[in-house]
Amino acid sequence: MLNVLMLGIGQCGNRILDAVNRESFGGSSKLSKYYSRQKFPSRVETLAINTAVNDLKELKFTAAKDRLHVPNLHGVGANRSIGKQGFWDNREMIMEEIEKRGDFDIAFVMTSASGGTGSSFTPLIIHELRERYKNITVVAVMVLPFREEGSIYLQNAAFSMRDIMEVESDGIILVDNQYLKRLSGDIKTAYDKINDMVAERILFLIESLDSEMLSVTDLGDFKTVMRGGLGMGTLGFYESDKKTTSLTSAIEGSIKPGGLLYPANVYEDAARAMIIIQGSRESLDVDEITKSVEKLSSKIGQVFKGIVIKKGRPKVLSVFTLGQVPDLEMLYAQAAQAIQDEKGRKTRAKKQLDDAFAYIEDLEEIY
Amino acid sequence: MRLIYLVVLALLASPILLAPMAAAASDDDDEVDEEITSREFSFRAGDGVKIGDYRVELISVVSVMDGLIEVKVWRRASDFEDWRVMEDHRDASFDDGAERGGLTLTVIDIFDEETVRMRAEYRSDYGYPQKYVTERAMAPKNLPKLAVQTTVDRTDISSGDEVKVTITVTNTGNDTARDVTIQDSPPLSQFRYLAGYPPKIKNQLSPGESDLAVYSMVAVTEGEVNMPATVARYADSKSTIYSASSPSISIEIKPKRMPDLVLKVDPPVPIKRGGEGPINITVENNGDASAYRVEVKAEVKSDGKSLEVVKGSLDESFFEIPPGGSETYSATVKGSRSGSYAINLKASYQGDGEMIQKETAFEVTVLEREYKYLYYLPVLPILIIGFWLFRRYKEYKY
Predict the structure, then answer these.
(1) What is the 3-state secondary structure (H, E, C) of A108-151?
(2) In this complex, do B396 and A65 lie within 8 Å of one another by their Cβ atoms?
(3) Would B332 disulfide with which of A217, A304, B311, B369, CB 3.0-4.6 Å?
(4) For chain B, which residues lie within 8 Å of any Cβ of chain A, measuring from their own Cβ?
(5) B36-138 has CATH 2.60.98.10 classification
(6) A154 and A76: one domain?
(7) Where are the domains of chain B?
(8) pLDDT in tens, B258-306
């Protein structure tokens, strides 16, 4: 039995956490929390942390005791400096809240890379977790912003990711909001959809790691996968529908760019991979699995394979770490450009203001 | 032909022709050719009647029953005087009888001790008789007179009841009554005589004295009984026998008095399961006699402890319950198992020497356990759900 800690930090993190909690209720009904019971595959403790009370209040499926408000005005205003300060001021309170939930084997810290609280708190919390829990595996789930969202968001994403790498997390699972563009419908439905997808995959991952697999993939394997490449990876998922019951197509579906949370070309960019196949006994054909995994490992190198026998249609989860992230480079470039632009604008504004103030430099107010 | 007719006519006419001749012949036999006539008179003792020179006086009635009276007949301006006791319906000739110029008297009827009807035959030329009253009749007579009175202590009785008959004989006359005997009717079959029968009375009763005889009897049958008159016989100083009788009494004998017990049970209130309930039993005597040694016994048709008497007893006994009276007692029963329990009450008692049994049955119902809080049951899930929802709401309300 794995002891899992799930932290949702900042508005985005909170919402993913809420999605996780809703998923654990089994139903998608809004009222499921009134009649159902949370069913986690392992011992899962969830905690939503935010500096903005309103964001915490919006949550629907997270118990009140699992919502931690860090009193720092109403949010940090996307300012990482204020956010960091806020964390330091409340560090003990936050960590105490986590520590009283017991010991953990793995922690998922879910956040947006671009926001204020999330991007500033996450590296620090990971650092604290590493300090306080000796054998914990900490995986960050980071949601990247729309590239067009704004310079501050981009720069926050850039710096926070770097910070996370520096505090030696066991890996980052990237979730790209660019993904939203592929989804139709209104923005709220789209956000909910992406949150649900993240929640579903992470819970599937936990369930798989905690269940008795035919081919062994455990937490150590997951750690190995996550530590490969750049230490950044993503999750792919495919659930067979009635028409496609073929296991090969299911496995391939899970590594198609369309099925990934972060669009990547697995065959070319992946460093390590883990394929978890779940299905009923009769659907799990050895040949199909072997061929598909062989095909993948010939390209990637190391592919961990896990097989879980469970009634239902075949489901496949793929975990990747990437050896190269061309998009990320672009993101950093955009971020750097944005910072430069911001700097330039700031300098120009300063200069303009200085010039303007120069007019009144030696003057006194006369009434 | 004509001759035959004449002969026949002569034959037919001959009795008519001969008759006056015969009469004339018989008239020739009598010495005196005066006609004799008769008249009837009613006499009271002391009364007299003048017939020509004869005087007829009724001295007394010697005996009504024997039909004997005493008369005195005498003739004025002569030494003829005749005292005679006459017998009823027998002719008595005085002074050689009517045919010889005397009198012939016949007692027709004796009404009572004083009144007599007589017929007198005499010669018609004595003229119309005249009644008179002698001095003796007007003088007070020293005669005993008894009044008999029979009373019963009650006339409205039931079979088996004892009746006391009191016969009181009082001498209301002014002479001593002698040889007094009373005769009650021959024993009546409707009664069994206990003591004092046949009744006896003093032999002699002085004027004003009274005596009584009491006897008792028990009615053995039912119906209306007419007790005949009690007759007292007595004689006066001249041994004249008189009798007196009491009016008859009718007694109605009703059927035998019996006690009639009725067992009444207040309809028992259904007992809750495990609860207790009272049973009130009333024993009423609706009969007209006391019930003795009343014993009421209850038979509960219940297995084991399903229905048990916890207080008091369903059995009870009473020594006597008078007619119209009632006794009440109660017991408390406890029902441990639901159901209907039949209880049979038997009362045995003694009435008029025989044992009588009466039975009554009633039922005690022990109810199913009443789940009063069942009414709350539908509310309970709502409350639980409400509480659950509220708790969940609180849990997820930030």
Answers:
(1) EEEEECCCCHHHHHHHHHHHHHHHHCCCCEEEEEEEECCCCCCH
(2) no
(3) B311
(4) 388-389, 392-398
(5) yes
(6) yes
(7) 36-138, 146-254, 261-366
(8) 888 888 888 777 888 778 888 888 888 888 888 888 888 888 776 656 7
